[in-house]
Amino acid sequence: MGSVSSILQTKGPAHSFASVTDCQKKTPLLPAGAFDTHVHVFDPRLGPYAPGRPYTPEDAPLSKLIAFNENLTTDGQVGNLVLVQPSPYKTDCTVLLQCLRDLRNRNINARAIVVIDVDNVTDHALEEMHQLGARGIRLNFQADGREVDLTKLADMLHKAASRIQHLPGWMVQLYVPVWVWEALYDSILDLPVPVIADHLGGALGRSKLSPEFHESPLSQPGFSSLTSLAKHGRAIVKISGLYRCSKDSASTYSDMKPIIESLAREIPYQLVWGSDWPHTGDGAARLKNPDINVKEGFRSIDNLGILQNLRDWVGSEEVWEKLMRDNPARFYRWFASEASPGTASLSRFEQHRHVDLQKFTRKVNEIRRRLDRPLTYSEKVLYAHLDDASNDGSIVRGKTQLKLRPLRIACQDATAQMALIQFMSAGLESTAVPTTVHCDHLIVSRDGETEESSPGSRSSPRGPGAGIIHQIVLENYAFPGGMMVGTDSHTPNAGGMGMIAIGVGGADAVDVMAGLPLELIAPRVLGVKLTGELTKWASPKDVINKLASLISVKGGTGSIVEYFGPGTKGLSATGMATICNMGAETGATTSIFPYSPQMAAYLRANNRPDMAQAVETVSHELRADHGAEYDRVIEIDLSTLEPQINGPFTPDLATPLSKFHSAVKENAWPKLTAGLIGSCTNSSFEDMTRAASVAQQALDAGLKPKVPLLVSPGSLQTRRTLENAGIVDVLEKVGATMLTNACGPCCGSWDRTDMPKGTPNSIITSYNRNFSGRLDSNPATHVFLSSPEVVMGKIFSDDLSFDPNVDGLTTPSGEEFRFTPPVGQSLPSRGYEDSDSAYLAPPTDDRSHIQVQISPSSQRLQKLAPFKPWSGNDFEDCLILIKTKGKCTTDHITPAGPWFRFRGHLENISNNTLIGAVNAETEQVNQIRNRLTGEDGGVPDTARDYQAKGRPWVVIADHNYGEGSSREHAALQPRYLGGVAIIAKSFARIHEANLKKQGMLPLTFTNEADYDRIRSSDLVSIKGLAALAPGQPLTLLVTPTESSSEPWQAEVSHSFTHEQIEYFKAGSALNLMSRHLS
After folding, report:
1. What fold is seen in the domain 35-331?
2. Of the residues 198, 302, 488, 891, which is catalytic?
3. Does 441 qualify as catalytic in the annotation?
4. What is the DSSP string of 411-466?
5. Which of 19, 604, 760, 962 registers the highest number of CB atoms within 10 A of its CB?
6. 265 is catalytic
7. Correct CATH for 875-1077 of 3.10.180.10, 3.30.70.1130, 3.90.79.10, 3.20.19.10
């Protein structure tokens, strides 16, 4: 490797020490609570200088440092200081540590960067330094003209990092020429601790650069690598020592302006400032007179002039405060007490909000003692978020009602409209829990991203094209040990980062927004033990496709799916997210993986190093206890798992790739007409690189796709990273239509024009759902689910049965071609590109003047009127609107696609109520008999007629009613149209909760055979409502109207809690909340 030579030194005489009062007078600029992260103390009275030191400085005692700092602050108070061990003391930190003690006695906050003998320092000595405030070690390879072999430097870096990685918050401070960052890029990425880049990382101003870089100082070798390392959270750039980087002292080093402007623009969260007081000399004097006993003076520096320039160059008050206060507080762990090293910012966008993972471990210990048994990992995370008021008594899985306090709410635009309208109805000014809204569902896909737009609101904190909600959450907000809820059923995607993430209806989300706890029956825990490693074409998607086939679309109901075992260690964070995401298709409450180092790597690649470090300090608790018991265990051997293709029409019908050819022939499935890659399930960097490796093989062989390929990147960040890695170029060369970074076809926002409705055809996707008509509104489209790489392989043949693993294709030259297994990267080698500009922050000032105006004539938005409270009487002689047969998902109850635009307008969207449900007595959809007129008509029209005539009605349904998305419209619409109850064999969890929130009765047949007895012409009375109580069944009185049969009774069960019964009585949960708030 080469060698590191000394940076050019400013020529000129050294000066004696000058206080700030000796410099040009300017207004003090440091805000209250600011941090000076680079200062030295030289005081031979406290301890001697080291033999063989490079120079002997003038005295600069602690008292002068304090006076200097006082004169720089706006309030005249000493700020926060970071003392750096200077070269004359070498590895003897006696003076430094004594200064830390003195500062502590003066109640001045201080941290320190030490210099140690890495080979000989003891752990005990390091711990003592830590307790006094040390937070890192310094490696200075830029002083005194020394040259260091890069191989040796890389070894020293790793050795130093390995000695301190167990110490919370410790870093390596490195002073090297800027070009070294490029040479050591990979080595620094691999370090277990971050690096502080001293003095702008050695970047030079024009006055010190060779002429070739004068026009573009940002192109100096190594600067882009330094910026990239900072973006990945591996480097913290210290703006200090400008006089070491520039000769232009006359203009207060203005040639550094483009460097600092670039850093403030590109990495505002990774910057700190240091004065470099007392400004040691440039070395010129020691060259003229090498006598070590001659004291070397300090430079005379216009500190206030430099600060004035910096404030102008960083561009905004927000970045200035990050530089001076927020960032150093985070990096040097000022907000993490000595007892709480696991503290981190909740996200890059919420530096003022922190999470202390040490509290998580304390809560887990309390719960473990209380329950007196080992805990599964999901139990640890879930129970650690119990509301304080409910922390007594035992917890019984499947029975105990939990009250939980999530840390975050995420909403997507389709569900957020109604949720926010409900929140507005509560009359609250701001949410009690951090809440984000993501524009991803309402962007219609057809011709490609340049032609696509969102018909929805653009007032979301995450604007259109920023990315899919679950990908954005994974990149920016998810972390091991945390808990969140989201108004989308695939919220469990964040379980790939070790987080409890639960999909809920809008009403549940509104409760949490308003500061109320989330109520949930303590889930059972379904353990999935993974062994072996994935090989060849097998991918994480195949794990969940296989599991869905083993337990069915309702097999996870009431349970958390918790993965464990040695097989988890070989999966990437995004791969684990894929598995958790599609766990929603099993009906599970959520899915989760235990901590693995891949999660910390993902956090760092997404510029969240403080969270990575916090998680690592509590990693021992981020897994199941030894001896923890699961309610059921399923084992999957990844080594023998082959690719699965699931479908059509249900996500739990899995066929191994090797048997798919036979299944196509046996079922006469139609030919392949399109391939679609992306969605929140499979749009990661790893997914796309594996798919691109397959595409590249085909391109090299001269092959072209036989069917259209549509690609939906998961986020703007991933998209930009894929572009820089050359992946998008490969996809475009293969003819892919690049859709907007949004849900697109996966949620039904696909304006498909190449296939007439009713035409049988097949498409293969890497999505998560394949219900009839979901993607393209064509019920004849057979949708199959597989991994991105299998989708990519299959599009090069229009024969649905083609197996890219074994089948051959003929190239244009007549040769036979076969694919080899795909390859990919779990993370981009240089981390993810920045896309923070897509984030739109909420207003921070007084919001009392903000009004939300909804036009009475709007066809998209409508204010909600409260539902009427329960009358206090039983429901008598209810009509049966429809008796449904088989699968009745939320897509059947309230279809998506073109109806998305009415998600904020209850009256309009109610016109699609149950239009996809299959009539059990006629096998038709949206065609039922009006029992009052005797005429046949559509379901919503009939419901409106019953309502207008004052007749309550019910729905009779099959198993797992309401399966699929979390859309609460599927509960709101029947309630709005006059429905009073849904009586089914069983319910999907989220939909059952949504019905309760809207004041409807979700009831289940105690004897499922009663479903077969009841006819849609019967009248139903629901008896015993006055005595409605948890665990107490109700009675149905069924009166036949088309036969002479006698009325008969059926018992129906429910899962209402005491509080949910109050929802019913009040007319809805929102009514009850409004009553409490008034």
Report:
1. TIM Barrel (3.20.20)
2. 488
3. yes
4. EEHHHHHHHHHHHHHTT-SS-SS-EEEE--SS--BSS-GGG---SS-S-SSB-TTS
5. 962
6. no
7. 3.20.19.10
